[in-house]
Fold this sequence. Notes:
The complex is a heterodimer of chains A (774) and B (165). With 774 residues, chain A is mainly alpha-helical. Chain A is built from 37 helices and 8 strands. Chain A has a 5-stranded parallel sheet with strand order 2-3-4-1-5, sandwiched between helices. In chain A, helix 5 (134-144) links the parallel strand 3 (121-126) and strand 4. The longest helix of chain A is centred in the middle third of the chain and has 24 residues, at 378-401. Chain A starts with 29 loop residues before the first helix and ends in an 11-residue tail after the last helix. Chain B is globular. In chain B, strands 1-4-5-6-7-2-3 form a 7-stranded mixed sheet.
Amino acid sequence: MALPRSHQFDLGLDVQKRLPSDLTPLVGRELALREIQRQFQQPDLRLLTLVGPGGVGKTRLAIRAAAELASDFDEVVFVDFSPIADSALALSLLARTLGVLEDGEAPLAHRLATAIGNRQLLLVLDNLERILPFGSDVAMLLRSCPGTKALVTSRAPLRVSGEQEYLVPPLDLPAAIELFVARARAVRPSISATVENEPVIVAICRELDMLPLAIELAAARAKVLSVDAILARLEHRLALLTGGPQDSPERQRSLRDAIAWSVELLDEADRRRFCSLAVFTGGFTIDAYEYVVEGTLSTGADPLDAIFSLVDKNLVRVLDQPDGDQEIERFGLLETVREYASELLAESDDAAELRNRHAMWCVEFVELAAPMLVNGAAERWARRIDAEFPNLRSALDWLLEQERTDEALRLSSELWTYWMTFGGLGEGRQWLDNALMLPGGTPSLRVRAVGIAGHFASNQGDFAYEAQVQEALTTSRLIGDPVGEAIALYALGDLANEQNDFQRGPEYLEAAIALCDQVGDETRATMAMVNLGSLARRMGDDERAAELIGQTVERARAQQFGVALTFSLNLMSRVARARGDLRTARALYQESLETAWKLGQRVTIAFILLDGAALAAAGDQPERAARLLGAAESLRETIGMPHEPSVSHASGSGYDAVVTKIRVALGEQKFESAWNAGRSLPIEQAVEEAIWDETAQAHATRSQFGLTARELDVLRLLVAGRSDRQIGDALFISPRTAQVHVANILAKLDVPTRGAAAATALRFGVIDDAPLSQ
Amino acid sequence: MKPTACTFESSHEQPGNRSDAQTNPAGTGIQPDPSNAELVVRRFMSNVLERGDVRQIPELVAPDYVGHLGHGDYYGPEGARIVVAMFRNALPDLTVHLDDLLTCGDRVTRRFTITGTHLAPLLGHPPTGEQTVLRGIGIDRVAQGRLQESWLLVEIVPRAPPTHP
């Protein structure tokens, strides 16, 4: 049975899916692609930077090159850094994309390196020109991760050791002409290069310094201008344009001039709309556009028509979202275009209102989207929120700057479900702290924000924050805000729970449950019950624990509250284990881990693995237990919860006791090596090992041939006659990885061909009748 | 081609004939009559070019319109808008004077003068900030109440060099 794909892990995902697609054909870059391939074949090449002016097409070239290099790597990851202006935030973005979360504790760079490990990873880092200092982080990462290589695009080189540069040339003439005609044909199908107009097209390309993006901007106008008219107008205008800041290199102005030329051809309404788009960071949906831009300008035009009018002119592009919610279209501006639009926006009267509406849209979006994370559609909404993060961040920055306390509090508070489900509490906490530092604000909003921050603090081990939460509790009662009071009570309960306060813990939690039920905060009520159940169990009151947790499982199922369900199932498993019923314990544990995996809940998985270890220890599998503990530690590091698991989250008889037991059973050396083996296991494999309790027979036959669980999966598909690519598709791994597995299987079964492997598998009963999961 | 009725009007007989916008600044301009080719051209010159009412362009310009200017061609209502914008951006306070208008079948020929302050680049000429005169000749083919094709030549009237004392 194969594990279903998980949004947050995305391991072994088909590499093509991590790169944006080529929405327009790449013209005239065969030589460049060959050169890049050649450079990558050099054994000591780790970092190649594609350098060149804006508009020369570095990004497209990098994407195509990466697609062609993909088969040499296990994974390819593409990150667009254009929304980032501060190099300090760049590492965070890279970490987020790779699923590594930040917290206050261990340096993010180290955790990133640990998470990447020895994977054969190709990092495509796009648009680093504004954050050149980030280059040293990249260089350090490459030093720590031997299997990783980086392909960077930037207007200027990073200037770090080990960097190779490739200067992306402008197009040669035939390619430029081809590009112009291709783009012009998209808007005027009858056009072609003829004896009469070819010299004119050549002149246009030369006027634009053969920059592909500038050529495309000009060619897009072929709908309304003849080629002669395009040339004449370009010549007229470019002679007079004084564009760009004083110190920008000559060539950088060429694309900017082409943008200015194109924008000047827009009618009044289009031009206002175009400038307005500068208010977005990282793209926008039609819904956001309508609220923010149409809401401000009131041009009355159909939003989709308006946007596509600009798309036709190459000023706006449709964004391809390899990891995103495919059903909602996103649009965006190329960075150079966005810069120009920003300049115009700064001079426009619309700026203030646009920023205001942008911030309001973000607040309302979060208030709509975040609660959806605790029901069944969580994955899709998580992707939507991920896609909007650059907008959310810039909105928060603006709200903080404008001291719009209430909106800042709302924005940071409402996202708590996101941070809670997917981790990254550090950033969430920081948002809340920043908002709370602003003056004023509605008291109830402040109280709630402190309560939520308290919940985070509890998970971060920042127990000192309790004082603030106490204050918030008092205030909430003073102003008569039961919702805020419930949040504060919950946070205090959580804090007490973390510190094993068997006195106040139950007090706070029971009060929280009662109040939450009263005000209709079902989510928190369920969470509080889970905590209470966990406390009861640790206090030794298994009967009460079973009763409570049985209820939370029901509630969580009904609410489709993923995190609560996985935690509850895990707790039930502990209850069963405590009374010696290992069979039930294992079944519940498997269900909880599978649920957590499906929902991508790294936070809960990190804890549940500890239970796996305890179960393994109880079942006399000390080596397996040690491996799982190592894997859990590694996962904790990557998600930013490095503090030692406190007793509340550890296995029933105590984390330390389990560790001692298996250490004794294995002896120091075997213990160490099993632990380290677990640390370096890819998380997917660790979870597989933790979930499956193979039947005795399966275990025996696997042992006979020494096949891993994954290899067993591949073997089943092989027996069914699938190709490497089909196997890859079915198991969400790359064809190359599948190929490696097949080779290993053939070696272990000691057979020369796939056919022979299938025959052997069937004869020895290695394959059972169980159908493959989807 | 069989001969069709031609009309001729010239401002020579009416010296000091001012533009419609100047005689009737608060008005909405010349009103439509699709059967009258000459009227289409007048409306365009007066309502669109002079008064800047670009909303009338789709009514007056055919979807497959082609405008031939000296430096290249412009297509459709959007192309016509761009041509108009070219003049209006360059001379924001422009006034239009129709000096001659001849209609022959579906062809309307006009001789016109555009006057205004040159405040933005025009056809490669940097703004001078001064009162500028453009003169032009155009032939428009009109059908179904819309401009189908135009041939235009426009030039900036050179300023007389200052006379020496």
